[in-house]
Specification:
The chain has 231 residues and is α/β, with parallel strands linked by helices. The chain has helices at 28-36, 56-64, 77-88, 106-119, 143-152, 156-161, 164-168, 194-207, 216-220; strands spanning 2-7, 22-23, 26-27, 42-50, 68-72, 93-98, 123-125, 139-142, 175-177. 40% of the residues are buried.
Length: 231
């Protein structure tokens, strides 16, 4: 079973504190984790936040909810992931997710984990050739590949964004891509801006009360389904 490391912080520049914004009475990050807990390929979910005081309230919220948390550097997020993997003694598949995707699709995550395993890849994602809505992003890599990146990546960009070094190495690593059909890349379901959060609120209000496990198809059927061009 894979371990998901969910990257989260309070100091988002465009929408500060978004991970704890109330979404149908629960912090947004807890709504996302509720969806992640439906993944069949995930055996463990760990939230990786920072040691910065701004994230103290996030860590307390997660602890109160009984969720596993690891805290590390604020800006060296790759280092945070490596330290988390070492602390947790991870040796299998690691799934990188970000806490601004409360519409995460368990089926897409499971498919990407299976692709990495069955294809024998070091790294697999659905974002290098985008066919899924922005906000359903998932990256899966081996613990060995993560530790190699941690040892060899030196640029501030690679350290901040965790995985670019992995897919920039070309033939040195085996790379797999999860491609969906039909192409839904025109849709935007992530939360970076106030309008993004307003859309997510409308989705949850429309679907969650009658079906907490609502699917991507249910979202697509909504008349107000948000496209990238609407951002």
């Amino acid at each position: 079973m894979a371990t998901a490391i969910l990257q989260a912080r309070m100091s988002s520049s465009r929408l500060p504190g978004k991970v704890l914004k109330p979404l149908l009475g629960q912090p947004m990050i807890l709504r996302q984790i509720e969806r992640l807990q439906r993944c069949r390929e995930l055996g463990r979910i760990v939230v990786a936040t920072s040691l910065d005081p701004s994230d103290d309230i996030l860590a307390k919220t997660l602890a109160k909810a009984g969720l596993e948390t690891f805290r590390g550097p604020l800006d060296d997020v790759l280092g945070r992931f490596v330290l988390a993997a070492d602390h947790l003694q991870l040796e299998g598949d690691i799934v990188r997710l970000t806490a601004d995707c409360p519409l995460a699709d368990p089926g897409v995550i499971d498919a990407c984990v299976a692709l990495r395993r069955e294809g024998g890849f070091d790294y697999a994602s659905n974002g290098q050739v985008r066919t899924y809505p922005r906000g359903l992003d998932v990256e899966v890599f081996t613990a060995a590949a993560l530790r190699r990146a941690g040892a060899e990546a030196t640029s501030p960009y690679d350290r901040e964004h965790v995985t670019p070094w992995l897919y920039r190495t070309g033939t040195t690593l085996r790379l797999g891509e999860l491609v969906g059909s039909p192409d839904l890349s025109e849709f935007r379901w992530t939360v970076d801006l106030p309008a993004d959060f307003e859309f997510v609120e409308r989705v949850y209000a429309a679907l969650y009360p009658s079906n907490p496990a609502f699917s991507s198809d249910d979202i697509l059927a909504l008349p107000f389904c948000r496209r990238e061009a609407d951002a």
